[in-house]
Design brief:
The complex is a heterodimer of chains A (about 600) and B (about 190). Chain A has about 600 residues and is mainly alpha-helical. Chain A contains 18 helices and 4 strands. Helix content of chain A is about 60%, strand content about 0%. Chain B has 6 helices and no strands. The chains are: A mainly alpha (about 600), B mainly alpha (about 190).
Chain lengths: ~600, ~190
């Protein structure tokens, strides 16, 4: 124990120092309910807090999509129960236009930020980083705890905004001004928008505190022998995710601060020459495009913040369950790095038709299409990893394979949309909806499910129920394609997004059967997610107990801890690492853990 | 393992450097927004009041005093250390007061920073300097916390790490302001 750490005199550090202490002697530090489950500084507990909060948000966000799919699928029907539940927002049992926009906006905000950012990287970065690099906890357990509680506060504010008299923000999850800047323009641009901005500011603080910790933990606290190139790919993916977040979220914050100024102090950063309801506004000289630049400078990296952790976990799970080393480890790291760089150079492809200089657009087309290169490298390596493998179809493995399938399907349509000329036709249609839902939304969800099924035994010392897991996988996988595949056709035919009702529109009412089909499948898929939630909570208490330390026969360090690790992770010394994480099927052995020294006659890899 | 760690940078110091990178991105976003806006119609030239020169000198001085405080702490000259620390905090507050006074001047000159008739150039000056001021305020809070710890009679603590981290941050907000100040003067 270094004396330097003890003399810190810093409450947070003392807790960490204490955790360091614990391994030497077997004394057990008394933890109250409050310090163990609520204000915990243990990375494993914080990870579970992120996961369960994320799950609650996922149910809310998913339910919103069921509600607006109800409107899209059955526009002529009225559901009196909706009026009972939502009052004026569903007058006459039909979802009003304002309510529809609020639902879509909140669905996007909740799933992009609260579920797939906080719920995904918050969960797995926290649970996996110290366990896989061999550390007792994060660099700062205190900052880590703050990161969760800022997320919690952001959640409270966003949740409260759902109950405002004027409703939550409803200008789309991208909150483009001038709509979002002018309270008189729309009900959802009133108080709901301020709540949205405050909640997002808190959320950004949470992400930054978390990201700082992830980066400094991975770079500084790796155990002996764990060089960067011996780290499992999950760690590389989470590292690049954190770098993306730390560099791009502050730019969104600056955009949001300027928007708060425009909303509340009458400045003209984004506003110019606007007439609302016959009233001429005094604002002059602002630029709405400026907000889009600031927003998408985060917004595009955000896509990879969502996707990279899923990619990392999928790489790990595919290798473990194929009993084969990952194919092209360094190419995997290199392609993650390339994606990370390109993520900052493509933001304007979201703005091809919003008034961006078309000449400038050409450069963004080129850079956007370049992303296909690292993506293709990754897909090739995943397929070659499972190629002729001794595959075990565990639920985690099923979801990992599902991820690869969805990533290919969704990635291919990205090549269409990355071309600014094609985008003139395809923008704002259901083709875009289908593309980003498959490649970013559903694919990342699959990565997250794969992670939950694979590491649940480490989190709770029990297994999830396999039957429910298999139903969950097959219905979700088939359902995802049934929902989003038809949307490609709708989009190519020109069906626009953001409309509540197509039934009176001659060109598009041919799609009413297809819409009804999509909505019905969406409800079934949503119901199956509830089955997963049930499985999750049931298995925490009643699941089959894990009997061995290393149930999957994996090489990484988290499986060298006790079945239910305490705060500090390893009861004795932290193990030393002697090899990379992917020695599967080597020299006639099924797997060789990272902690095993390299033998004299071992073949080189 | 611990011996190996000693050679490395302290994890909290490292975290601060990453945080500095993050804060820089925010101001890079704001100043590039400023550059984009500058090239558009109805942009007003900035007139920077002389008070901002005084606040610039104040924050430069405070960087020197926080350096002195750290030196005195390393030499265990606790009385001198405490007074340099207190001076730094006072200079930090003085900087904020001068900044606010500087913005009050615009009112006398009948230049609107916000609201109807305001020009984006001045709104930018307010938003960017305001965010910078919040970061200085954060530094002042850190200094006050360290000062209170230094005065505590029950807990004798000679670790230099907290002050080293705060001092690095303090120099950073200083350099950040110099950058912004040059930016606003040069970019008008």
């Amino acid at each position: 124990m270094s004396s330097e750490t003890i003399t810190h005199g810093h409450a947070a550090v003392q807790t960490v120092a204490h955790a360091h202490d614990e391994h030497g002697h077997d004394h057990h530090h008394e933890e109250s309910f409050l310090t163990k489950y609520i204000f915990s500084t243990d990375h494993k507990m914080i990870g579970k807090q992120f996961l369960i909060t994320g799950m609650i948000w996922a149910i809310i966000g998913g339910l919103f999509s069921v509600l607006f799919r109800l409107q899209l699928g059955y526009p002529e029907m009225s559901f009196p129960i909706l009026e009972d539940l939502f009052g004026k927002w569903a007058a006459g049992g039909r979802i009003t236009n304002e309510f529809y926009y609020a639902l879509v906006t909140m669905h996007g905000t909740i799933l992009v930020f609260f579920v797939l950012t906080a719920g995904l990287s918050g969960t797995f970065a926290n649970i996996l980083i110290p366990l896989q690099i061999g550390a007792r906890d994060m660099a700062s357990g205190f900052l880590n705890m703050l990161s969760y509680w800022f997320f919690f506060l952001a959640s409270v504010v966003m949740f409260a905004s759902l109950f405002l008299q004027t409703g939550p923000a409803s200008g789309g999850w991208t909150v483009y001004p001038p709509l979002s800047a002018l309270g008189q323009a729309n009900e959802g641009s009133k108080l709901g928008m301020d709540f949205w901005l405050i909640s997002m500011a808190l959320f950004i603080v949470s992400s930054l505190l978390g990201g700082l910790n992830y980066i400094s933990t991975i770079l500084n606290l790796r155990t002996k022998g764990m060089s960067m190139t011996r780290m499992p790919l999950t760690m590389w993916a989470i590292f690049f995710t954190a770098v993306l977040g730390v560099l791009s979220f502050p730019v969104l914050l600056s955009g949001a601060v300027l928007l708060l100024f425009d909303r509340n102090l009458g400045t003209s950063f984004y506003l110019s020459e606007i007439v609302v309801k016959g009233e001429i506004l005094p604002n002059e000289g602002g630029s709405a495009i400026l907000f889009q630049h600031l927003f998408w400078f985060l917004g595009h990296p955000e896509v990879y913040i969502i996707l990279l952790p899923a990619m990392g976990m999928v790489s790990e799970i595919l290798s473990v369950n194929s009993r084969k080393p990952i194919f092209g480890y360094l190419a995997m790291v290199g392609s993650l790095f390339a994606i990370c760089i390109l993520a900052f150079l493509v933001w304007a492809h979201h703005m091809f038709v919003t008034g961006l200089n078309p000449f400038l657009g050409a450069f963004f087309v080129l850079l956007t299409l370049l992303i296909a290169v690292p993506s293709a490298i990754k897909v090739f390596n995943w397929i070659t990893t499972i190629w002729r493998g001794n595959i075990r179809f565990t639920p985690g493995m099923l979801f990992a394979i599902g991820f690869v399938s969805l990533f290919i399907s969704g990635g291919l349509t990205g090549i269409f949309l990355g071309n600014s000329t094609l985008d003139i036709h395809l923008h704002d249609t259901y083709f875009v909806v289908a593309h980003f839902h498959i490649v970013m939304g559903v694919a990342s969800f699959f990565g997250m499910f794969a992670g939950v099924y694979h590491w649940f035994p480490k989190m709770y010392g029990r297994y999830l129920n396999n039957t429910m897991a298999n139903i969950h996988f097959w219905v979700t996988f088939v359902g995802a394609y049934l929902i989003f595949w038809p949307m490609h056709y709708q989009g190519l035919a020109g069906l626009p997004r953001r409309y509540t009702d197509f039934s009176n529109w001659q060109s598009f009412n041919q799609f009413s059967d297809m819409n009804r089909f999509i909505s019905t499948v969406a409800m079934v898929v949503f119901a199956v997610q509830l089955l997963f939630v049930f499985n999750f909570f049931y298995s925490i208490f009643k699941g089959r107990k894990v009997k061995t330390q290393n149930p999957w026969g994996a090489n990484t360090l988290e499986w060298t801890t006790p079945i239910n690790p305490g705060h500090g992770n390893w009861p004795g010394d932290i193990p030393e690492v002697h090899r990379w994480a992917y020695d599967y099927g080597k020299d006639g052995r099924e797997f060789i853990p990272q902690t095993e020294p390299v033998g004299e006659n071992e073949s080189a890899h | 393992m611990m011996n190996e760690q000693r050679k490395k940078i302290h994890p909290h110091k490292f975290t601060l450097w990453v945080a500095i990178g993050s804060i820089l991105m925010m101001f890079a976003g704001l100043t590039s927004a400023y550059i984009v806006k500058r090239n558009q119609a109805s942009w007003m030239m900035l007139e920077i009041p002389v008070l901002f020169w005084y606040s610039t000198i104040t924050i430069l001085l405070s960087s020197a005093t926080v350096y002195m405080a750290l030196q005195k702490l390393k030499q265990r000259e606790m009385v001198a250390y405490r007074s340099w620390l207190a001076t730094t905090a006072v200079l930090g507050v003085l900087f904020l007061v001068l900044q606010i006074a500087g913005f009050m001047k615009f009112g006398e000159l009948d230049i609107r920073l916000v609201g109807a008739g305001s020009n984006a150039s001045y709104s930018f000056l307010l938003a960017i300097s305001g965010l910078h001021g919040l970061h200085v305020l954060g530094g002042v809070v850190a200094l006050v916390v360290i000062a209170i710890r230094a005065l505590s009679t029950t807990n004798r603590n000679y670790s230099t790490i907290p002050l080293e981290i705060t001092a690095t941050y303090w120099h950073f907000v200083d350099i950040l302001w110099i950058y912004l100040f040059i930016f606003f003067n040069w970019m008008k």
